[in-house]
Design brief:
The protein is of the alpha+beta class and about 450 residues long. It has helices spanning about 145-150, 155-160, 180-190, 220-235, 250-265, 275-285, 330-345, 425-440, and strands at about 10-15, 25, 30-35, 40-45, 50-55, 60, 70, 85, 90, 95, 135, 170, 240-250, 295, 300, 310, 310-315, 315-320, 320-325, 360-365, 385, 390-400, 405-420.
């Protein structure tokens, strides 16, 4: 199981693309994995024959776990081992697939004056430090540490569920307070002083629905389960508020129509509305830096990089690839990056770093005809922009002689969901108004 990023401790082998006995070419996709960051196809490190499958589809294992063995063609152990010569010839050997990717270094919190704040340095609310496992007084799973501990290993969560223990209420001894197997077993065996086992039970918030006759029951996919977890955690973390605005795209529509053929011939990219939107958003984030920030306890991290995540709908879920340093790109550069990331997201070809380090997210349900919505913030960001359907509408416009006229205009509703802990409604609305003005006055030379 490859190391798909520094913070990834485990992965789910979702699908085998080859079966035992199949010939495999070097760099040919051999299996698919799902992590809490990305779905990806893992290439074979060498050419050969798939000799043994150790980890079955649907199993979740720790990184660096041997998932299969490959019999190589030239005696080299797959994954970087060296063949052993003997009797004047090389013996064909088997070795484990090792497609480990380099760990992704964390981004420096460059926006905080004088000192850097990292999530590990954020104190847990209402929870005193403890050298060993202890129950959190709040146990509400709202803090950063609680969410980290909730995302403990599947084995720990299984043990916790069997014994009615809320993992998010525990402080573990692992990295960033991660609850280990030893922690959960020790807690179940001993328990906190003065607390009975009944007190450690986590009462269900709602009764679990039961299937009726004829219903079909299917387990959530790894991606769907993680999306579910992240959305609930975001709602518990941020104070969500949503504002709306209507934007006139008539000018951009004319610029796009006039330049589309030449743009596509020159760049090889389709000229859609999204690059115009991303360009306007990057300018807005420069004007209102708090929209491009993160909350770290009682500190606010103002990000210097503007990395725009764009939600891509997949047949099996949702993923948010990130355009890094989008403010440094031209319209054609944004278009090229956007189309490339979207295509590789649908083909499961994204690398972990391409879905990390986003500072602001745009979601576009308008492509399905939706007029407006209230999207959930993509943590640890503080705002997300929703783009509604861009369509022609009758609008009342002031005429040259002072009388109102009815005209056909190309318009769309935009929404901004923002974290009211640090963003006031006035600031969010000013940001929306800035984006609106930028789009409605987009220069023809801006391509």
């Amino acid at each position: 199981m490859p190391q798909m990023g520094e913070s990834i401790a485990e992965g789910t082998l979702s699908k085998w693309l080859k079966k035992v006995g199949d010939e495999v070419k070097r760099d040919e996709p051999i299996f698919e994995i799902s992590t809490d960051k990305v779905d990806a196809e893992i290439p074979s490190p060498a050419a050969g024959v798939l000799a043994e499958i150790i980890v079955k589809e649907g199993e979740t294992v720790a990184v660096q776990t041997v998932v299969a063995r490959l019999e190589t063609e030239k005696g080299a152990i797959a994954g970087g081992g060296t063949g052993e010569a003997g009797g004047g010839r090389q013996e064909a050997r088997t070795g484990h697939i090792d497609t480990a990717a380099p760990a992704i270094p964390p981004v420096a919190a460059s926006g905080v004056p004088q000192r850097e704040v990292t999530p590990a340095a954020v104190p847990s609310r209402q929870q005193p430090a403890a050298p060993a496992i202890a129950a959190s007084p709040s146990g509400n799973g709202n803090s950063f540490e609680d969410r980290v501990r909730t995302r403990s290993s599947p084995l720990v969560r299984k043990i916790a569920a069997e014994h009615g223990v809320n993992v998010s209420s525990l402080q573990g001894t692992g990295v960033a307070g991660r609850v280990t197997k030893r922690d959960i077993l020790g807690f179940i065996e001993a328990g906190p002083p003065g607390m009975s086992s009944a007190s450690r039970l986590s009462p269900p918030a709602l009764p679990v629905p039961q299937p009726w006759a004829g219903d079909v029951v299917e387990p959530m996919s790894k991606m769907r389960a993680l999306i579910s977890e992240h959305m609930v955690a975001s709602r518990h973390t941020s104070a969500h508020v949503t504002s709306f605005i209507e934007i006139d795209f008539t000018r951009v529509a004319k610029i796009r129509l006039k330049n589309r053929a030449e743009f596509e011939a020159t760049t090889g990219q389709k000229l859609t509305y999204m690059p115009f939107i991303i360009k306007a958003v990057t300018e807005g984030l420069k004007a209102f830096p708090v929209m491009n920030s993160s909350v770290a306890g009682t500190n606010v991290i103002y990000r210097k990089q503007i990395n725009i995540g764009v939600a891509v709908a997949l047949d099996w879920g949702l993923i948010v690839p990130v355009i890094k340093r989008a403010d440094d790109l031209s319209l054609s550069g944004i278009s090229r990056a956007l189309n490339d990331l979207a295509a590789r997201a649908r083909a499961k070809k994204l690398s972990p770093e391409e879905v990390q380090e986003g500072t602001f997210t745009i979601t576009n349900p308008g492509v399905f005809g939706s007029l407006m919505g209230t999207p959930i913030i993509n943590q640890p960001q503080v705002a997300i922009l929703g783009v509604g359907a861009i369509e022609k509408r009758p609008k009342i416009l002031p005429g040259a002689d002072g009388e109102d006229t009815i005209a056909i205009r190309t318009c769309a509703y935009f929404s901004i969901s923002f974290d009211h802990r640090i963003i006031d409604g006035a600031v969010a609305d000013q940001f929306l108004a800035f984006v609106k003005k930028t789009i409605e006055t987009f220069p023809e030379t801006g391509l």
